[in-house]
Amino acid sequence: MTSRLPPKLARMPSSSTDGIAARYLMQFRAVRIEILDQHGQAVIVTPRNGERRGPVVASGFLLRDGADLYLYTCWHVVTGIELANPVLPGTNQRRSRLKVSMQRSEKLKAAIASVGGSDSFEVELYERSGEDAFLPRWEQDEQSVSNSNLAMANLVQPFWHDIVRIRLPANVVSSSTPVLSLLDLWPDLIPPSDPLMLVGYPYGFSAKQLTPTPIVLTRHVAAISRDGARREILIDGAGAPGMSGGPVFYEWDNRLYLFGMYVGVIFPDAAPENEPERTSPLGIVCPMNLLSHQLKLARACPQA
Question: What are the CA-CA distances from residue 220 to residues 6, 205, 256, 257, 284 (Å)?
Answer without folding.
Answer: 20, 23, 15, 15, 11
